[in-house]
Amino acid sequence: MKNLLKNIKLLLLSYRLRFSENINYRASLISHSIAMLTYAFLRVAIILIAGSLGQGITGWNTYQLILFTGIQQVYISLIFLLVYRQLYILIQNIFLGQLEYDLTKPVDSQLAIALKGSNLNNIFGVVLGIIIIIFSLFKLKLTPSITNFIISAIFLLFGVLIIYSIMFVCSILNFWFDRLENAREFGLRLAGEVSRFPANAYHKAGTIMYFLLLPFTLSVTIPAQALLNQFNLTWMLGLIVISLSLFYLSRKFWQFALKNYSSASS
Amino acid sequence: MRKFLAVIIMSWQDALNHRARIIVWTSIDLILPIVMVLLFRVIYPTPTSLINGLSYSDLVRYYLLITFLKVLIISYPHENVSEGIWRGTLSKYLVKPIAYPLHEILSELGWRQAAALIFLPLVIIISLILKLPLISQPTLTKFFVFFITLFFTFLVYWLFDFIFGLTAFWFTDISGIASLKNVFFTLLSGQLIPPQFLPQSLQQINHWLPFQYIMAFPVKLLQGNLSFSSISFALGLLIFYGLIFSIFAFWLWKKGLKQYSAVGL
Questions:
Q1: A99 in Cβ contact with A68 (< 8 Å)
Q2: Residue of A nearest to B53 (CA)
Q3: Does residue B264 lie in a domain region?
């Protein structure tokens, strides 16, 4: 427990440091914010167009779909904020044979990597998502309780853990394959595209495909439903089990991969 | 001519050397169309019903062809240009006996060809499994017009993206501007949804912009029988935008080079 608290403190300290670093590059912050704004616009536009065609997306009205998009905006921004950059640094370090700087630190090696790579430029994306959520809740005349917000946030973090684990495993492949930095992109795009639409949008996908896509879409569907006061306990339990199992497996794969690592000078 | 060929061959070698990288990129390109095809399965009341003139099988074929065209046409020269300007690595290309834009376009051409060659068998296999012919009523003229269109679409998109890269001479970090471009292109070109599914007002504006002619038009060309007037209008528009983009890119390049400086190289 003491160790866990120490690690959390370290992580928070690294975020603070990274934030002061990001604030130094204000032009980049503005540029990232424009990017976030445009992608948020695209997300809302696509889900509204899809919802207006044919039978639409059953079980979701327009403002519920906008609420869903707001949650997806927060979800993707959190991935960029907490995961994306650290894995970029990890891949670079594997290429350059500089991973030993992280491996020799007096903290867990996975944590040492996480300490390096948050990108707080993406905080605007989270804020933007929250604005979209508040707007849609206002239009839906809904006031979720604090518990609903907490449940929503917790399941959003479980969703991020799923993507972190997948992207981490993809990045680790760079131990064996040269110039495979885009493998990390695969995990990100999988999460980004599949989570665009609620889980019931895929119910005609066929059993295997449906269950393959489910963890990604549930990462957004469950938090959105929590704010709408709808709970599906089976899905919730499923998301917890999948995220924890994937995290465990990614950790084991990391430990296995480290045995294959050799730096330029070692 | 020999130096141009050398650049293309080098790019081919590089692409084939890193086959795994190309396979991952093409797998990434497949994610969005798969998601959209699955979504439309729910949106279509029955597989035979029509939405805006497209049946469900038309739509599957559309996404398959769009994905292939994306691999073949869509390049991101802005990434190399902006990084070159930002890190100063552009300098090494300025002293080479081939103009930098030409070097970039040729190496991109080589890379795209190699990627398409790897991706093509997959597209053919999928179309055979789904029993969806990719080209309806294939004729020699259709292929000829298709390849001419491909040349212009590649060129127009490359120039369009290159212009965004050149803004790095003044802004250095262009990620925001580049994503703005990506968002509008993705929406208007028909990559996400066919252009006829867009709201009417957006369709009217889109009619005069080059985006849908870069992606959706070549697909329409293969899928249906377009009239001579619509083909000439699309090609005319692509040539027009190609000329405008070339002049603008040339002007920006000249202006930007005067602005450019690199240290410590």
A1: no
A2: A54
A3: no
Residue A231 has pLDDT above 70, yes or no: yes
Q: How many domains does chain B have?
A: 1
State the best of B70, B177, B179, B205 to mutate against chain A, taking most chain A CBs within 10 Å. B179
Residues in B closer than 8 angstroms to A55, CB to CB, are 42-45
Structural domain span for residue B166? 2-259
Query: Could you tell me the residue ranges of all domains in chain A?
Result: 2-258
Residue B188: inside a domain = yes
Tokens 């060309």 map to which residue?
B221
**Is residue B265 one of the residues assigned to a domain?**
no
Of the candidates A158, A161, A142, the residue with the CA atom closest to the CA atom of residue A150: A158
> Which tokens is B95 given?
């002293």
Judge: B49–A54 Cβ closer than 8 Å, yes or no. yes
Residue B178 has pLDDT above 80, yes or no: yes
CB distance A55–B35 less than 8 Å?
Answer: no
Tell me the Ramachandran region of residue B53: left when phi exceeds 0, alpha when psi lies from -120 to 50, beta otherwise: left
Compute the distance between CA of residue A99 and CA of residue A261 in angstroms, rounded to an integer: 9
The C-alpha R_g of chain A, in whole angstroms, comes to 19
Read off the pLDDT of residues B29-47 as tens digits, 9 standing for 90 and up: 888 888 888 888 888 888 7
Tokens, residue A170: 């993809």
Contacts by residues B200-209 (CB-CB < 8 Å, ≥ 24 positions apart): B208/B237
CB contact under 8 A, B42 and A177: no
d(CA A123, CA A125): 5
Q: Which of B28, B35, B183 shows the shortest C-beta gap to A38?
A: B183
- Residues A157-175 have pLDDT tens digits of 999 999 999 999 999 988 8
